[in-house]
Amino acid sequence: MSDANEEREQKTTRELLPAIRPEAELVPLVLPEKHQRFYDKLRARIEAFIREKGINGKLTGYLLLAPDLFVLLARLMMDKRVSLQAKAVAGIAVAYFIAPVDFIPEVVLTGLGLMDDIILAVYALRRVLADVDEAVVREHWNGEQDLLAVITRIIREADELVGQKIAGKLKKVLLRK
Fold first, then answer.
1. Do the Cβ atoms of 114 and 67 come closer than 8 Å?
2. Radius of gyration of the CA atoms of the chain, in A
3. Is the Cβ–Cβ distance between 93 and 54 less than 8 Å?
4. With contact defined as beta carbons under 8 Å apart, do 73 and 94 qualify?
5. Can you state the angle between helices 114-129 and 65-78, rounded to 10 degrees?
6. Which of 7, 21, 69, 71 is 20 to 30 Å from 95 by CA-CA measure?
7. Running DSSP on this structure, what letter comes out for residue 17?
8. In this structure, what is the dihedral angle of CA atoms 134, 142, 60, 74, given to the nearest 10 degrees?
C-alpha cells in the first residue's frame, strides 16, 4: 500500500471514530433491577427470532446488539451525569427503537428491521460520547464487545448493512450541526 493510500485510510478511520470527551471524576450509580429484566426479555425475543428464522453469522451479531444499545441509551437518559443535550440525543434513538414506523419497519421485516435502529443508536452514541465521559457511557454498557469497537465497526459498515441511502438519512437525523 502506498503512503498516500495508507494516509487516506488512516484519515478515514479517524473520521469514523467517535470524539470522546476527556475523563472526569466518576460517581457510582446503582441501576434499577427493571432495566435488567427488560434487557433480558428483549434479548430473549431477538434470540428466539434468530433461531426461528435460522439466521447466523454476521447478521446475528448485529441483531444481538439491539438490546445492549437500547438499554445503554435508556440508562444514559436517566443518568444525572449526562448533559441535557446528550439525553435528548439518546432519547431520539430510544424513541426510534420504539416507534412502529421507521426507515426499515420491524413489522414488515421483523428482526432485520432492527438494523436501522442499531445504526441510528450508534450514530447517537457517537454524538453522546462527544459530550459525556467515556467511562460513564461504558459503565452502562451490557455488551460483551468493546463499545468503541462496536461503534466504529457499525459506522464503517452502515452503507453495506442498510444501503447508502438509508444510512445517509439516519446519519442526518443526529449529525446535524
1. no
2. 16
3. no
4. yes
5. 40
6. 21
7. S
8. -80
Identify the band that residue 1 occupies on the pLDDT scale cut at 50, 70 and 90: low
- pLDDT tops 60 at residue 111: no
CA distance linking residue 103 with residue 113, whole number of Å:
8
Q: What is the pLDDT of residues 31-43, one digit of tens each?
A: 566 656 777 777 8
Confidence tier at 18 by pLDDT (50, 70, 90):
low
What count of Cα atoms within 13 Å lies in the side-chain half-sphere of residue 45?
Answer: 11
How far apart (Å, rounded) are the C-alpha atoms in residues 54 and 3? 44
Exposure on the CB side of residue 65, measured as CA atoms within 13 A: 23
Considering the entire predicted model, what is its pTM?
0.71
Q: Cα dist. 84→80, 105, 131, 150 in Å?
A: 9, 29, 10, 25
Chain Cα centroid distance, residue 154:
8
Dihedral of CA atoms 166, 64, 77, 38 in degrees, nearest 10, equals 130
At position 28, the amino acid (one-letter code) is: P
Residue 128 half-sphere exposure toward CB, CA atoms < 13 A:
34
Q: Is 141 left (phi over 0), alpha (psi -120 to 50) or beta?
A: beta
| 118 conformational bin, left if phi > 0, alpha if psi -120 to 50, beta if neither | alpha
